[in-house]
Specification:
5 helices; mainly alpha; two-stranded antiparallel sheet
Length: about 120
């Protein structure tokens, strides 16, 4: 039974029409796969850029709202008394990386905090 199928397939693959159709379908499939991959990459990059721009605008707006608090002499006490700073997941640190202020809503930077943030 299998030999009859194999014989029929090998006879039909010798036809020029079948070989041209096969190559046409192969090139069409490859072209569509490349085009779909290109669209996926471009769309992902566009979404990431839009997300980054939105995040940057929100961060600038939040920083400008808290600018007077950040320039006070006692940053920790001023931010602790500001309800906007307490409600947002905010961490303020020095250039060396020491934490000056950490809001209660800011997740812990460990594996548990990573899972909660995701």
């Amino acid at each position: 039974m299998f030999s009859a199928i194999r014989t029929r397939l090998t006879l039909s693959l010798k036809s020029l029409r079948v070989r041209l159709t096969f190559w046409y379908l192969l090139t069409l499939g490859a072209t569509l796969a490349v085009f779909a991959t290109f669209l996926l990459v471009v769309r992902a990059r566009t979404l990431r850029d839009a997300f980054d721009a939105d995040l940057e605008v929100r961060a600038h707006r939040f920083a400008s709202d808290l600018r007077p608090d950040l320039f006070s002499l006692d940053v920790r006490e001023t931010l602790a008394s500001d309800p906007r700073a307490m409600a947002a997941p905010l961490r303020v640190g020095t250039a060396a990386g020491l934490t000056i202020f950490r809001a209660p809503s800011f997740p812990e930077l460990n594996w548990t905090g990573e899972r909660e943030a995701a």
